[in-house]
């Protein structure tokens, strides 16, 4: 290179700078780093998002990375999309009330999921010692945390006399309401014991649990790593988002596969990897990923993810679907008449006899 260079960026993108010889043709961009996202800073925490505006191909899913300090509150709000979340670090207390008047409150820690169905109002508050940080995902690429329905915004933009009449209080009681949306704000800590904070609901709690302790479930182990799946089979309320938490050990890979039912939205939690996406018509492109990156794979395009670092590669695979589904290249080949497969590829059929017939998501 004789012209301008950006060595730091080049080091992050070895497979873009010097693509493998199998890459060919054009594919849309399939990566966006959270580090390139605008941070919305508030007293009590911050948020940043990767949506279709940042990554145009990601039409089916948008993600928000949020940090709440101890006591920091993501204010009471709702939105038309469902909310799926994964706690990355720390602890939070979440609340919701459903359309039938059942309430929900739970404390969540690292590795836990929560799910609020579309339109259901909810809140999140960071707990001691140092609050929390989490990933939110919404099954709509155009979602934005800037356009949710917030309780403070509602109070600021309805006639105060009407609000007072609605609540059956004197209008003077509303003198102190905020003049604009708070979004995230610093509040006093809630009572440490959940039971002391919970409101008794004459109708009882929500019928379906809104929290799922994902990393407390035993993973599906394979030779090079492990996978945990959360979808409506074990987390029934999560009708709009299916998820897999994947760990790939150094030197190993998430096997060549594709998804027959939905696009894949990825969030890289730790480690380094590279993914080649094969798009038919002789097109393929390789991207490098690291912690905080969002990746995307359109439905049915085959892909693998190879751990290129020295620590475990951890990522979330999310789908706008009630069910996680994938098709394994190796399993397909193992379960198809071997003479037929061998004739296509001009390979020894002994190779096919040795292929495992069960799925090996990480090899
Ligand atoms: Mn929300
Ligand atoms: Mn996949």
TL;DR?
The chain is mainly beta. It has helices at residues 7-12, 14-17, 151-156, 160-167, 194-197, 329-334, 338-345, 349-354, and strands at 31-33, 40-42, 45-50, 62-68, 72-78, 83-97, 103-109, 113-116, 122-126, 132-138, 149-150, 184-186, 211-212, 220-222, 225-230, 242-248, 253-258, 264-270, 272-278, 284-290, 293-297, 302-307, 313-319, 327-328. The model has no long low-confidence stretch (mean pLDDT 97).
Describe the structure.
By secondary structure, the protein is mainly beta. The protein has two domains: 37-211, Jelly Rolls, CATH 2.60.120.10; 217-324, Jelly Rolls (Sandwich), CATH 2.60.120.10. Helix content is 13%, strand content 37%. The chain contains eight helices and 24 strands. It has helices at residues 7-12, 14-17, 151-156, 160-167, 194-197, 329-334, 338-345, 349-354, and strands at 31-33, 40-42, 45-50, 62-68, 72-78, 83-97, 103-109, 113-116, 122-126, 132-138, 149-150, 184-186, 211-212, 220-222, 225-230, 242-248, 253-258, 264-270, 272-278, 284-290, 293-297, 302-307, 313-319, 327-328. Strands 2, 3, 4, 5, 6, 7, 8, 9, 10, 11, 12 and 13 form a twelve-stranded antiparallel sheet that branches. Residues 77, 79, 83, 122 line the site of one manganese (II) ion.
